[in-house]
Amino acid sequence: MSAPDLNLLVTLNALLAEGSVARAARRLRLSPSAMSRALARLRETTGDPLLVRAGRGLVPTPRALELRETVGRLVQEAEAALRPSETLDVKRLSRIFTLRTREGFVENFGPPLIARIAELAPGVRLYFTQKLDKDSAPLRDGTVDLETGVVGDDTGPELRTQALFRDRFIGVVRRGHPLSGGAMTPARYAAGRHILVSRRGLQKGQVDEALEALGLKRQIVTIVGSFSAALALARSSDLIVSVPERHTGNLRADMHSFVLPVAVSDMTISLLWHPRLDADPAHRWLRACIRDVCAERPAELVPGFEAG
Question: Is the dihedral of CA 271, 275, 278, 283 positive or negative?
Fold first, then answer.
């Protein structure tokens, strides 16, 4: 049996990551016809179609899904082995990193992160862009270096992830609001008028489900798409809003925050990046900086919660 062509691993990695012959060809700077021929050779070598047509696109076969992580790791290790050995000098590093984050991340973690970067690597600049959806394409095509968010079923399966911190939802009202004093009960909380934050325009959330389990229902008087808009409304009215605690620390300054009287799930905020950058020394250094900043305990947390 002849030895397999190991160059096909690079081709297979690109095809599995992109899910498209045309995009994989652009990624490897090949013509679409050359990529099609390479896919034919891969099918012959593996004995599996790997990518099959579904509508206008291609979807991976079970064998392709099985190979994706292994092939990606092999290509990454090979690239690292062939890369010239060098020690990263962050003081001389000159680079712009693009970070896509959910609202509130920049306001709360941006200042200490920028200060750390300025001290260690004055030639590095951070470009923050808002995360409006969970589309992994910007990480795949390289327009985004890093992303923060909750890892879910719709997260690109090839992406690398690392947990940064846990966050939980808390209640927030203006200073002097009737709910800013006295014991908080589910009934007292449900009796108020509420703001629901939903980027997708949903009519209810976890809080409503928890209240319904107790036979209670809250009155939602408005739905907004951002935490800052919801907090601005609550700051100048008697409306109540539920928001993630650590993501909104600076956004809810001078407001009264309290532990929700119903049980809702905490969420884990993670760092996401594409495997092509996994071994890049500068990228690894920036990831470590972000992890360190997010690991620092906030000066103030609402009683009853341990960040981790």
Answer: negative
